[in-house]
Amino acid sequence: MEITALWNQLSTAVAHIDDGLRLRAPNAALCELLGLSARRLEGESLALLAPERAELPDAARRAAAEQRIVQLRAFSLAPPLGDPVTVDIAFSPLPDGGVLLEIHALPPALPESTVRLSESLRGFAHEVKNPLAGLRGAAQLLGRRVAEPELKELADLIIAEADRLGALANRLLQGSGKPHLAVVNIHEVLERVAALLAAQERAPMLTRDFDPSLPPLRGDADRLTQLLLNLGRNAIEAGADRVVLRSRAEHGARIGERVVRLALRVDVLDNGRGVPPALADTLFLPMVSGRADGSGLGLAVCREIAREHGGAVSCRSRPGETVFTLLLPFGDSHG
Predict the structure, then answer these.
(1) The domain 2-110 is classified under which CATH number: 3.40.250.10, 3.40.50.620, 3.30.450.20, 3.10.20.590?
(2) Which residues form the Histidine kinase domain (predicted)?
């Protein structure tokens, strides 16, 4: 359920294409785009998406054979139900075989008003709210009955996280994938992340290296917390016992194809095992993980949250020194 929920949080339409060019694990966004259920799409031939267009399966074969990303721009899909839709498509090779299909609907083809979550994802969001309410209530009772300040802080932390997850569930039920932007103090977000990491079973030694002169920015504090918490937990899972949270201002920062006058840079540094070199180019793609028990979705969600804020997330790594960097624009872009 956890892996499925993360996969379905991606607003990008994605699926795994196996060696037989069949659709596997289509996410909710792909189902919505095509107007078909996951059960209907699972195991179907890739050719179902554009029966008269040989370029689609040919691109998937090239991506697998040449082990590189193959893109199709302004490609017209012809789903079995509904009208043709014009999209950008990317096929990326996966380490364990097959390719990842990513479909980005072009704005004229997919108006925002028509985007709705699938019933399965709505059901998940609805069902998760009940145990969250119970969890929050139990934490409130616990906070009233303990005297130690440290235990009260932990109870408050549980309540805050239950509220954050409840807000996420409401967002899913309302069908809104956009972040709720407000003025955010990034250091308050980082302190919240630090408290959550300190509460982990294998809590690392945390170092804060903040630039106190940084101005606030517009962002979704809950989504940014999710992004940075994912990075911190990844560090712990990579065996790190020391994590540094660092904030800086960066002038003339390049974010994708843009250059922004002023950007916020947040670095999460750790001394873990590092990222395997074979995953360096595909690290932020869904279903790519350096751990046997990993979902391969956490970093994909991080990338999507960064993009929601007009930013980007990147990584440089070697054994004993890994740095994940989040860049978020303060000002207008140029160049």
Answers:
(1) 3.30.450.20
(2) 123-332
